[in-house]
Amino acid sequence: MHVVLLNQYYPPDAAPTGVMLEAVVEKIVAQGHQATVICAAGGYAEQSQATTDRSKKWSDCANNPKIIRIAATRFGRGSFLGKLLDYISYYVGVMGCLLWLRPRPDRVVALTTPPYLSLLARIMSKLRHADHAHWVMDVYPDVMVAHGMLREGSLKHRLLVALARWGAGGPRCYAVVTLGPDMAERVGQLFPEAEERGLIRWVPLWSSESEVVMDESENWECDPTYTLRRARGWRDQEFIVMYSGNMGLGHRFGELLEVVSRIANDHTEGSVFPMRCVFFGSGKRRNEIAEWVVRHPDCAVELHDYVSREQLGVHLRSADLHFVSLEPSWSGTMLPSKLQGIFAAARPVVFLGNEKSSLARWVHESGGGWVVQPNDFDGLLEVLREAALVGECKARGLAAQAFARKHFDKEINSRQVMSWMTENAHSDI
Asked: Do the Cβ atoms of 368 and 339 come closer than 8 Å?
């Protein structure tokens, strides 16, 4: 069958949605299907030359998959207007491509970047006598409500809910794939028709090859992890707490920074331990962290840019403990994929967020870390002190890695998504 997949980003762009889509496209092609990806020509963040070369390997495989890069605007994410123009130009380009695409698609699969691609998938699949499926990375309009852009129950909100339901509705909708149990529950509430028809499934995202590392080296002085730590100026006895990834509006940092300040200013006997908190990444809330660092020069806090995809495995492993957070109001609207890479790197996490979220469930089930409720400063401080105990992080990290090998395996999970995208086409509808 011929599967057409819609997403604004695709490698060599570094957007996580495109990176995950690439793994599924590889599986579609390996099964003998034709895959066409319609994406924009850049606009997120360019990857390294090594990743670009890896992406180009498909150009020598009988043009399968076929990657159509639309010449959409590339204002980027710096302003709302620029981002909106990028979206609109991409929508228009997708419509033009799908109208004339040969061979005719059997199924149109829409991701959720940009929002409401589901509308195009339903309309264009009808015109091309295909069916449509959806891989939900962000739940709209719920994300907009969590973002504060939209008031729940308002006229605009009700209109956007109706559009979302229409996009993923109708007899030609084949499947709605989500990323975790809390997202599946939220999508079921948003799309009651799909819920009633049993179309909603979920499968976790996975870690990339560069994040998967072997077990701890017996000779730790030769381990590249410790070489990296020393190159960064971290002392061997320091306890490194790391946040790595997008610093977006859906994440919380205030609790961690407050606790870091408490530790730095607590000079009572027996209470001090050498902890360093490091942040790597970018996003809307990066400036908040940067301003905090300037105001607290005596605290051991560092702020850095993203690391390359090829360095990610050793980078994640260079920390003793990772910090992951999600605003409770965002639970189920999105599901950050950073937990998968951290677990694959055999490192534990402390998750700050909703106890009922998918991330909290996976941390509890794996034994690979701790869950702390928002605004529980004392609880977070207690967790950090417990994590700093000798052997505690290593034991939980190994449990996390074992869980990742079973539940976040790239081969298994990407194949599952692929199977739902390629089964039982209804091209005669």
From this structure: no
Strand partners, 334: 138, 331
Q: 278: which DSSP letter?
A: E
DSSP code of residue 317: H
Tens of pLDDT along the chain (429 residues) come to 999 999 999 998 878 899 899 999 999 999 999 999 999 986 555 444 334 444 444 333 457 899 999 988 887 766 778 888 989 999 999 999 999 999 999 999 999 999 999 999 999 999 999 999 999 999 999 999 998 999 999 999 999 999 999 999 999 999 999 999 999 999 999 999 999 999 999 999 998 655 555 455 444 445 788 889 999 999 988 999 999 998 989 999 999 999 999 998 876 655 557 899 999 999 889 999 999 999 999 999 999 999 987 888 999 999 999 999 999 999 999 998 899 999 999 999 999 999 999 999 999 999 999 999 999 999 999 999 999 998 999 999 999 999 999 999 999 999 999 999 998 755 444
CA distance 359 to 339: 8
Is the whole model's pTM more than 0.85, yes or no?
A: yes
| Tokens at 278, concatenated | 């490091």
CA-to-CA separations, 101 to 93, 128, 172, 280, in angstroms, rounded: 12, 9, 19, 41
| Residue 279 three-state SS | strand
